[in-house]
Amino acid sequence: MQELLKKFENKQPEITFEWSDSESEAEGWVVINSLRGGAAGGGTRMRKGLDKREVESLAKTMEVKFTVSGPAIGGAKSGINFDPNDPRKDEVLRRWYKAVIPLLKSYYGTGGDLNVDEIHEVIPITESYGLWHPQEGVVNGHYHATEPEKIRKIGQLRQGVSKVLEDPDFTPNGPKKYTVADMITGFGVAEAVRHYYTIWGGSIKGKRAVIQGWGNVGAAAACFLAVEGVKIVGIIDRDGGVINENGYSLDEVRELFLNRKGNKLVAENQLTFEEINEKIWDLESEIFIPAASSRLITQDQAERMVNAGLEVISCGANVPFADPEIFFGPIGVWTDQRVSVIPDFIANCGMARVFAYLMTDNAEVTDKAIFTDVSKTIEKALLKVNSKNPEKVKLAESSFSIALAQLV
């Protein structure tokens, strides 16, 4: 498996598009790892300090993800090195999308990602340049859709991704309305844990969970886990966190979800980052959801969680371990050999799967149909892993073996 992984990691991407903004210090890259199936897909992220290597590794991650979520296309990613809090963000995004529109028309499909919002930024900006939908390149390049097919598929995409959730099973009660795009990734991360206990044995009810990151993915995953009877005992976010060793109730978790300021945790008696970071890794818990940035989990943190009774990690963040390797370095391997690690390309495939589902013929565009399809996709992937490896360790290694057999 390691040899296959190295071969896949070291293969040069098929297309690299570089951009330097004429009116700011922003720079960006589209990396298309391959045009497998005639197209490639992957979201657009923005952060200060991002580089081409990060975009390359994320494009490769997307290619592996499509072996689970479908469609059978190549992996890609867009990355912009710019401070997302800069007031010039909107202008930078507009110039960026203007530059990459030819790719998005022909063979590349994108969406939101870190610090770039699908509904409020990607869709309206690309639409203003004449793109029917950010996935239009996949519809053209992969499906070679006729005009009526294209109209239908893009109609389903437009309706489904931005759909305001009405079913109370899939959205927290509150004054704010949430869309499929807001909730689906966190839902999938939580469903991966539920399916894990069903397939490998044990009950999810009463388990304790620690959540890292309180953006859409971490906060939504916590809500869906709480519905299943999981006790959320700790949350660590960028600026601080909270601990409740008895576990927050479902109502308390929902309140923390609804009280977020942007993607930030807002809570009474919030500990500073230094205080929470010192304590949270030793909390007794069976479930860990890394849902913040990539490459944050250190060897020391992994060891402390394992010693505190950890059973399963469901990766909401791409490549959560602080390894330099693209996919699977020493910290990831060490952890995978001791607990059940559900890798990112299975656990957080929700949004990629929604795109794939909405591009199928006559997809049913209802809350229940979209969320059920994501749940079944994750269950199917985990059943495949279990048939290859019924043990509770080396799940990530087995998952990679299954995916790479389709790619290398």
UniProtKB/TrEMBL annotation:
Residues 181-408 form the Glutamate/phenylalanine/leucine/valine/L-tryptophan dehydrogenase C-terminal domain. InterPro entries: Aminoacid_DH-like_N_sf (IPR046346), Glu/Leu/Phe/Val/Trp_DH_C (IPR006096), Glu/Leu/Phe/Val/Trp_DH_dimer (IPR006097), NAD(P)-bd_dom_sf (IPR036291). Keywords: Oxidoreductase. GO terms for biological process: L-glutamate catabolic process. It comes from the Bacteria. The keyword Cell cycle does not apply. GO terms for molecular function: glutamate dehydrogenase (NAD+) activity. Belongs to the Glu/Leu/Phe/Val dehydrogenases family. This is Glutamate dehydrogenase/leucine dehydrogenase. It comes from Algoriphagus yeomjeoni.
